[in-house]
Design goal:
mainly alpha, 70% helix
Length: 100
C-alpha cells in the first residue's frame, strides 16, 4: 500500500494554471476598468461640508441677527432649523449622483 501524494492536475484542458491565465486575459481584455475612487471621495467631502457648514453658517448668521435685532434666540433657532433642512436636501441630491 503506497499512499504517495501525487499532482492530480492534468496538463490539458483542466490545468489550473492555464485556466487562471485565461481568466486573467478575459478580465483584462474585455472588462471595463474599475471606477476611480476620486469621485466617491469628492462626494463624501461635499456631504461632510454640508453637514458641518450649513448648520454652522445658519447658526452664526442667526446669532448675529439676534444680537443686532434683540430677538434672542428666535432668529437663530429658525435659521438653524432651515439650514439643517437645506443641508439634508443637498445631501439627498448628492446621493442621487453617480460615483462613476
Amino acid at each position: 500500500m503506497s499512499f504517495a501524494l501525487a499532482d492530480n492536475r492534468h496538463n490539458g484542458h483542466d490545468d489550473l494554471d492555464a485556466r487562471i491565465a485565461r481568466a486573467k486575459a478575459d478580465v483584462s481584455g474585455g472588462a471595463a476598468k474599475p471606477a476611480s475612487a476620486g469621485k466617491g471621495y469628492a462626494q463624501g467631502s461635499r456631504v461632510l461640508a454640508e453637514l458641518i457648514g450649513a448648520p454652522l453658517g445658519g447658526g452664526l448668521i442667526g446669532w448675529l441677527l439676534d444680537s443686532w435685532l434683540g430677538t434672542t434666540p428666535w432668529i437663530m433657532l429658525v435659521l438653524l432649523a432651515l439650514s439643517v433642512v437645506v443641508a439634508f436636501r443637498n445631501i439627498y441630491r448628492i446621493s442621487q449622483e453617480r460615483a462613476e
